[in-house]
From TrEMBL:
Subunit structure: Homodimer.
InterPro entries: GH, GH_1_N_CS, Glyco_hydro_1, Glyco_hydro_1_AS
Active site (catalytic residues): E395
A GO cellular-component term linked to this record: cytosol
Keyword line: Glycoprotein, Glycosidase, Hydrolase
Pfam families: Glyco_hydro_1 (PF00232)
GO MF term set: beta-galactosidase activity; glycosylceramidase activity
Encoding gene (name): GBA3
Record-given protein name: Cytosolic beta-glucosidase
GO biological process: carbohydrate metabolic process; glycosylceramide catabolic process
Domain of life: Eukaryota
UniProt cross-references to PROSITE patterns, sorted A to Z: GLYCOSYL_HYDROL_F1_1, GLYCOSYL_HYDROL_F1_2
Length: 495
């Protein structure tokens, strides 16, 4: 059974739902720029300009949250809505909002960005739903991109200032923080593959540098929280790491086993190892990158996978829980760096490829093979590898493609089966899982797939001005699961 205080949640991200991309003096983000570029890298030329219009319709989102009976809701803040230039010297000064605090007779000023998130956060708390807040979900202020973005070493200090601003402003009510969502995706899809903003393609170099600065930024923010806010606010801070579960294609093959180790090191390990194990990248990863640099005659100074400076506060220990985004699994064999390849790139460095087991159905997006058992395996692996941390599954979900099915039975099955695996991980493997967040509350802007891919528990009608939200069958079934477990949960013994 699930612990009585288990977090039952759903998640969204600012750019994917808010719209209002330039409302009330919001600054431009890299996703605004990426989508507005011609030709844009997004299917159908879609953008998040309006999305679910949650900037205007946030009260409807709160209704959805309540209809599901969630205990927690995970949302992200738009950095450039709060700080249009990305820096704290400009707190959306032109979009000011005055409010009066009757208890001490003070007329206060705050930015419309602050006002927006205050409304959402206060609205959640008023209906007894705890917010989990992500500071960064892929949407860097464009002004900072123009100063080098995640490839600039200065981004860590700027992120830290933004994080402090958020802790200071919202931390009296927000007790669960995610600094950066999926640094892997930001680094690799944004700086290696160019399929995400900022659309950079510098294989084998830029992603490692971007990822490095994300780790530095995360650590700086965690240290700030720890030193300045924790004693007053008593919250927890982590970074959300995405990973497939991976296992050898041929269980007998030592080559496949080694490839699997690399596969996990290059996804989960890239970020989790520095934070939870050694303060540095997995040795397997560094060795693989260095080996290819040498083989391709690139030399090794500076190393493509950067080294952490001893003069900065460390990375090790900068997470108060493990935040995992899990969707799918792979069977792994070597491939991509066998000697024939002459291209520098992460694929060559990794020298492993993941394939889908034929028994796993693929029914939505091509990458999402249904393998719920992989989550249990991954949770067990995390317990063993990262010193038995408290774990929140901060994302898990299933996409529909093509015609909309309000009776989305495949997604119902996906959630059912996955939640059972979480229960087994808790009961049988003793993993300290503290919560589970479905991705996503709403159908939304699915990055380079635009609106063609639907992950919601609520259907959103993107052709209607009102962006009507309608609960899918999977939403009803998730609500039933939650209510069953919430009512079964024993309230804490008051003595
Ligand atoms: C999450 O990433 C994101 O946090 C969320 O914003 C997003 O909406 C959700 O997933 C659904 O996609 O097309 O073969 O290159 C999940 C991790 C890693 C899954 C990159 C898709 C691309 C595979 N993602 N992966 S491919």
């Amino acid at each position: 059974m699930f612990p009585h205080d288990f977090a039952w949640g759903a998640a969204t991200a600012a750019y994917q739902v808010e719209g209002g991309w330039d409302a009330d003096h919001k600054g431009e983000s890299i996703w605004d720029a990426f989508c507005h570029r011609e030709p844009s890298g997004v299917l159908g030329g879609h953008s998040g300009d309006v999305a679910c219009d949650s900037y205007r319709l946030w009260e409807q989102d709160l209704r959805c949250v309540r209809d599901l009976g969630l205990t927690h809701y995970r949302l992200s803040l738009s950095w450039s809505r709060l700080l249009p230039h990305g820096t704290t010297d400009h707190v959306n000064q032109t979009g000011l909002w005055y409010y009066y605090t009757p208890h001490n007779n003070v007329l206060r000023l705050c930015s419309t960005g602050v006002r927006y998130y205050n409304q959402v956060i206060n609205g959640l708390i008023a209906c007894n739903v705890a917010p989990m807040v992500t500071l960064y979900h892929f949407d860097l202020p464009q002004a900072l991109q123009e100063r080098g973005g995640w490839q600039s070493p200065h981004v860590a200090t700027l992120f830290d200032a933004y994080a402090r601003f958020c802790f200071q402003t919202f931390g009296d009510r927000v007790k669960l923080w995610i600094t950066i969502n999926e640094p892997y995706v930001c680094a690799k899809l944004g700086h290696e593959d160019a399929v995400h903003a900022p659309g950079i393609r510098q294989p084998g170099v830029a992603a490692y540098l971007a990822g490095h600065n994300m780790l530095r930024a995360h650590a700086a923010a965690w240290h700030s929280y720890d030193a300045i806010y924790r004693s007053k606010q008593g919250g927890l801070v982590s970074m959300a790491i995405n990973s497939d579960w991976a296992e050898p294609l041929d269980p007998e093959s030592t080559e496949d086993a080694a490839a699997t180790e690399r596969y996990l090191a290059f996804t989960l390990g890239w970020f989790a190892w520095p934070v939870f194990v050694t303060g540095d990248y997995p040795e397997v990863m560094r060795a693989a990158v260095d080996r290819q640099s040498e083989r391709l005659g690139r030399g090794n100074s500076p190393p493509r996978l950067p080294r952490f400076s001893k003069d900065e506060p460390g990375i090790l220990g900068t997470a108060d829980f493990f935040a995992l985004n899990y969707y799918t699994s792979r069977k792994v064999r070597p491939g991509g760096g066998r000697g024939g390849e002459t291209l520098l790139g992460m694929k060559t460095d990794l020298d492993a490829e993941g394939v889908v087991d034929p028994s796993w159905p693929v029914c939505g997006v091509p990458w999402l093979a249904v393998a719920p058992y992989g989550l249990r395996k991954l949770l067990k692996y995390i317990k063993a590898t990262f010193n038995h941390p408290a774990v929140y599954v901060t994302e898990n979900g299933f996409a529909q493609m093509g015609p909309v099915l309000m009776d989305d039975i495949q997604r119902c099955g996906y959630y059912q089966d996955t939640i059972v695996e979480v229960a087994k991980a808790i009961e049988e493997d003793g993993v300290n899982v503290r919560g589970y967040f479905a991705w996503s509350l709403l159908d939304n802007f699915e990055w380079s797939d635009g609106y063609s891919v639907r992950f919601g528990l609520f259907h959103v009608d993107f052709s209607a001005g009102e962006r009507t939200r309608t609960m899918y069958r999977s939403g009803r079934e998730y609500a039933q699961i939650i209510s069953k477990h919430r009512s079964r949960a024993q309230p804490e013994n008051p003595s």
